[in-house]
Design goal:
Layout lengths: L11 E5 L7 H11 L3 E6 L2 H6 L8 E4 L5 H14 L4 E6 L19 H21 L4 E10 L14 H19 L6 E7 L5 H4 L4 H11 L8 H12 L9 E5 L10 H9 L3
Parallel strand pairs: 1-2, 1-4, 2-3, 4-5, 5-6, 6-7
Helix pairs in contact: 1-8, 4-5
Length: 272
């Protein structure tokens, strides 16, 4: 088999969202580079660029706060000047939940401001960035966002983030349809089970949920960030050319294993 089986050699991919070594975006970028792709990074602030300077050494790094349309427009101009050949792929690994200092509230107490800001950053940013860069994406480019394995599991400690991710998933079909009027750009999502990232560590009760999810997988081992990244790299490659407007779930079988006898017995044993 060719070393370039994924056909990513010499292709240029724009990656949004590296924060540190645990970031999904970082794992995706590493695997893209291993496959021979050129990676261009976009981080959210000058402070983030500074904090990742060592990690992203010798790599092209641009700054864009996706809450600010002016910065998105400015980024588009900077990228067009620096890379007139455009991009073959785009990774949207951006998520932010506007939890307040009061801590996690019942879902029905979610404020309008919280939900709209979370939607703006975690969902609308994909639409805004795709629109701003549409003329810089190759005709057959691949756009991949990072979602979650299920938006129907009402995890209390995940709060209002799941409905926003559901909107993100839905937007894939509409983006793919819109872009089909002038291109063959594909839009897909990688939807991993619970991952051990710095962002997730800040969610109250996440560790317990992570440990439960690990037991619920068919293999008894948690999904690794590198596994989610590998799925993203496949979707970014020409080898996935027939896939668009889809979610690729990476949960090690957790979705089919909630009634595993070990889990059921443990719950029964814990009854009063």
């Amino acid at each position: 088999m060719s070393d370039d089986y994924l056909k990513l050699s010499a292709r240029r991919v724009l990656v949004f969202g590296v924060a540190n070594r645990k970031s999904v975006a970082w794992h995706v970028a590493q695997q893209l580079e291993e496959a021979g792709a050129e990676v261009v990074h976009v981080v959210r602030s000058a402070a983030r660029k500074e904090s990742t300077a060592k990690l992203l050494a010798d790599r092209a790094v641009f700054v864009c706060d996706v809450e600010q349309q002016a910065e998105i427009d400015s980024l588009a101009g900077e990228l067009k000047a620096a890379y007139p050949g455009g991009f073959h792929g785009l990774v949207h690994s951006i998520a932010f939940a506007d939890y307040d200092e009061a801590g996690m509230r019942p879902f029905h107490e979610t404020t309008r401001a919280q939900l709209l800001r979370t939607f703006d950053i975690s969902c609308y940013s994909l639409i805004a960035v795709s629109n701003a860069l549409k003329d810089q994406l190759a005709r057959d480019a691949s756009v991949v966002t990072i979602s979650i394995s299920t938006t129907r599991m009402a995890s209390e400690n995940y709060g209002f983030m799941a409905p926003v991710k559901a909107a993100l998933d839905s937007s894939l079909a509409f983006l793919a349809k819109s872009f089909s009027n002038f291109s063959e750009v594909r839009f897909n999502a990688v939807a991993p089970g619970l991952l051990k990232t710095s962002a997730s560590a800040g969610i109250p009760g996440y560790v317990d949920s992570y440990l439960f999810a690990e037991r619920a997988t068919l293999r008894g081992r948690a999904v690794q960030t590198a596994e989610a990244a590998a799925a993203a790299v496949f979707l970014l490659s020409p080898r996935s050319s027939g896939i668009t407007a889809q979610r690729l779930v990476v949960d090690a079988g957790m979705e089919v294993n909630y009634f595993d006898q070990r889990l059921v017995q443990a719950a029964i044993d814990g009854l009063p």
